[in-house]
Amino acid sequence: MVHILQIDTSPRLEHSHSRMLAREFVEKWSNYHPETQIIHRDLGLNPVPYIDATWVKAKFTPPDQYTPELAETIALSDELIDEFLAAERYVISTSMYNFSIPAVLKSYIDRIVRPRRTFAVDIKGFKGFLAEAKMRIQELATDW
Description:
Helix content: 25-40%
Distance between the termini: 38 Å
Oligomer: single chain
Shape: globular
Radius of gyration: 17 Å
CATH topology: Rossmann fold
């Protein structure tokens, strides 16, 4: 079984080209691979909160040293990372605002890039835990 994590970022539920393309891709994929399990994360409807000082402290604190406040603060990040690591394929629909990705997608990335969870650091440098993963980027640009 293939696990796909579909992430939508547009706040527009209708008339969003990126949502439409992602939906069509996932539907067609599922038609050819009916055993596919889709996990849908909608950042447009349910934005991930921005990181704050407590979250940063939790990020760099070993889990066995968490206070109840740090554990509560890092819980969403753990959920997002577990969801991300469980997927084998990713479909991310996003628009471009001011020549960059939307803030909700950046906030999501900030929450899933964590030492000891998605990467490690040693004297040789950084080592990502998804180093063997393959990526395909498909993009579409419109001028509205």
